[in-house]
Write a structure and sequence with these properties.
Number of strands: 0
Strand content: under 5%
Helix content: over 70%
Structural class: mainly alpha
Shape: flat
Largest sheet: none
Distance between the termini: 41 Å
Order of helices and strands: HH
Length: 74
């Protein structure tokens, strides 16, 4: 049996984070600059930035803080 690269739960979370990042980047770019030249490049850059920041927060920082608080309150 082949070992999966990503667990299904992690894959679902990453997909959800990607969709949220894409929608947030779209809203920000359209509101700020509109559909001018270079829209797609700015859109992909902002998507990547949002995806990295949101993913790092949701997948690393929040669980670490929860773990530390749980250990300190015992």
């Amino acid at each position: 049996m082949k070992k999966r690269f990503l667990a299904p739960q992690l894959k679902r979370r990453l997909l959800l984070l990607a969709v949220i990042s894409l929608l947030l980047a779209s809203a920000l770019e359209i509101y700020t600059f509109g559909f001018t030249s270079g829209f797609v490049v700015r859109w992909m850059r902002s998507f990547f930035v949002f995806f990295v920041l949101i993913s790092a927060t949701v997948l690393a920082i929040v669980p670490a803080v929860n773990y530390i608080v749980k250990k300190l309150t015992k």
